[in-house]
Specification:
It comes from Actinophytocola glycyrrhizae. This is DUF1365 domain-containing protein. This protein is an alpha+beta fold. It has one domain. Helices cover 16% and strands 39% of the residues. Strand 6 (90-96) and strand 7 (102-110) form a beta hairpin. It starts with a strand and ends in an 18-residue tail after the last helix.
Length: 232
Amino acid sequence: MILYTATLTHVRHRALYRRFTHRVRLWLVDLDDLPVSRLVSFRAADHLGAPDRPIRANLTAWLATRGIPAPGRVLMLAAPRSLGYVFNPLTVYWCEDAAGAPMCVVAEVHNTYGERHCYLLRPDERWQAAADKAFYVSPFLDVSGRYRMRLPSPDARLSLTIALRQDDEPAFTATLTGRRVGPATAARLLGYTFSLVPQRVRFLIQRHGVALWLRRLPVVPRAPHVPQEGVQ
């Protein structure tokens, strides 16, 4: 379990240009060796699949429905549940085969309405992949367009990019850049827990949304999302 500190930047390009940045902390964990701690936890109910099965089993089952065999190893970058709360705008799973070679990447997107959607990606040698947008995230962007993602596996540095194009124009870009701090220690776990990272991230995202609404940006109606794995 490795801690990363990072800067998350959102840039809105269409209708109304707006940029906002805030700091986040995320943990990189091996799904076969999830930490056992009273301070933080990674629960299946907070991710895809059935809440009564391990995250690893749920991901493996979901990949099987798409013709992908069970990975030999899965690394997950996410925020854990702490003080009874969790909010993960983006969880990334890097899937490797038994020899350690990359198989695929799964980008699990969560919105502020308690819904989620997974994008299965087959990155090229530069860790780039594309996918059609299929999930309502921002109330100011409709469900159309195509994502271009660059999601390299973290090492000493963390550098992820998701860019959305709509009508052949840039619509939205999110970047996450940071550095590896080190393994979980009691001090780092305490610092993460009492800095209220998930609570603060959600508050800042919603404050950003209020600012856009006050500037009279049109709100796109949200249709109920049907979970692709069959369990929400």
